[in-house]
């Protein structure tokens, strides 16, 4: 009788143990993972190439698809790239509104993240809470932009429209609800003995390894390295705002989750300042005919801090009505393929989904 050396397992694309439409092929000896290989290609692909065939303005509704849980990050990057190439000045009020949108999107993405990790641990009440609380933020986006998921609101030159009447008060109401809810999340989730036991000391990433592999964002800060693009390479009106860059430092699943728990509060703090400090004025600068808009030959790299790590766009113009080249540098390729395929080896089968969710991967970012 042939001896079985290992078992093969598949997580995704239909399995809830992975963050979206991608798959992992695992080999285990007993309960220990000995090999893991990622598999992508289940989603829409080729965003970068498609953008070369469209007028500059036509790419605005396309880029949000590159990361669905936090689409506004791609909107701001594309807008910033075009603005720097074209020499456009963005009105100050529009910059504050952009920060408001980006931080609301960060809160929404973190609630989605908390739900995913909790679901992988079997704490099924938390996904119900988190998705429900996220809906309050989606309600705000629907009123502001007309869309709940894809907003297509940040555009070269500013934003599509001003805040509707009473919108600030509605944002403050949602923020108060989220702040009050955090104590409930702490009691049932973050201080839960099961959560702590299942995540502390599991899938530990050192600071040195994170820097060597190009890990960014909350995953990097969770190893003890204090860096945030909003502080290191400021953009919009972030230099005018007061907020901390928390660092947990354990480098394990627990630290990655708690890193985002701390940053959740900082985003609320940022939004409150934006609402207080936002000046009056225009929200978009006048643009030329978008279908005859030729941008001077040049290239530029722009980057921002997303909930998943550093996002960057390299935008090249050859002086025509369409981009010559756009390259997207998202964090998910590094976190979801290179790091995941190394760090998952040696984990228990039940810990793999928790680890993968803790890395917060966005599959369409890989397939861009």
Rg over alpha carbons: 21 Å
Shape: globular
Give helix % range: 40-55%
Order the strands across the largest sheet as they lie in space.
1-2-3
User: Could you tell me the number of beta strands?
Assistant: 8
Tally of individual domains: 1
Provide a count of the helices: 13
Task: Name some characteristics of this structure.
alpha+beta; Cytochrome-c3 Hydrogenase, chain B; three-stranded antiparallel sheet; 13 helices; 13% strand
What does this structure look like?
- By secondary structure, the protein is of the alpha+beta class.
- The protein has one domain (7-366): Orthogonal Bundle (Cytochrome-c3 Hydrogenase, chain B).
- 46% of the residues lie in helices and 13% in strands.
- The chain is built from 13 helices and eight strands.
- It has helices at 47-51, 72-86, 92-121, 125-145, 167-190, 193-199, 207-213, 217-221, 229-232, 253-277, 332-343, 351-359, 363-366; strands at 7-11, 23-29, 32-39, 154-155, 158-159, 298-306, 309-317, 323-329.
- The strands form three sheets. The chain has a three-stranded antiparallel sheet. Strands 6-7-8 form a three-stranded antiparallel sheet.
- A hairpin with a 2-residue loop joins strand 6 and strand 7.
- It is globular.
- The termini are far apart.
- The model has no long low-confidence stretch (mean pLDDT 93).
């Amino acid at each position: 009788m042939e001896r079985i050396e290992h078992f093969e397992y598949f997580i995704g694309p239909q399995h809830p143990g992975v963050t979206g439409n991608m798959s992992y092929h695992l080999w285990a000896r007993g309960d220990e993972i000995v090999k893991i290989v990622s598999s992508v290609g289940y989603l829409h692909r080729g965003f970068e190439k498609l953008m070369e065939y469209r007028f500059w303005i036509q790419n605005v509704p396309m880029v949000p698809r590159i990361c669905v849980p936090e689409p506004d990050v791609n909107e701001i990057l594309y807008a910033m790239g075009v603005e720097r190439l074209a020499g456009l000045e963005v009105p100050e009020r529009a910059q504050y509104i952009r920060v408001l949108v980006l931080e609301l999107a960060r809160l929404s993405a973190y609630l989605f993240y908390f739900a995913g990790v909790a679901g992988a641990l079997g704490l099924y009440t938390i996904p119900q809470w988190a998705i429900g609380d996220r809906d309050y933020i989606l309600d705000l986006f629907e009123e502001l932009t007309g869309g709940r998921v894809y907003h297509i609101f940040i555009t070269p030159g500013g934003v599509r429209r001003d805040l509707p009447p009473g919108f600030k008060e509605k944002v403050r109401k949602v923020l108060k609800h989220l702040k009050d809810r955090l104590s409930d999340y702490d009691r049932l989730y973050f201080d839960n003995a099961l959560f702590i036991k299942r995540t502390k000391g599991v899938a530990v990433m050192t600071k040195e390894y994170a820097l060597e592999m190009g890990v960014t964002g909350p995953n990097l800060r969770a190893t003890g390295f204090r860096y945030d693009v909003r502080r290191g390479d400021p953009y919009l009106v972030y230099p005018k705002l007061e907020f901390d860059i928390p660092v947990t430092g354990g480098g394990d699943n627990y630290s990655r989750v708690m890193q985002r728990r701390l940053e959740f509060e900082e985003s609320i703090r940022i939004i409150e300042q934006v609402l207080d400090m936002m000046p009056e004025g225009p929200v978009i600068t006048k643009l030329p005919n978008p279908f005859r808009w030729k941008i001077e030959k040049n290239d530029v790299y722009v980057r921002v801090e997303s909930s998943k790590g550093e996002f960057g766009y390299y935008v090249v113009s050859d002086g025509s009505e369409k981009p010559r080249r756009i390259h997207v540098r998202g964090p998910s390729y590094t976190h979801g393929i290179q790091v995941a395929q190394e760090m998952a080896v040696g984990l228990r089968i039940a810990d793999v989904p928790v680890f993968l969710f803790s890395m917060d991967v966005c599959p369409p970012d890989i397939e861009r």
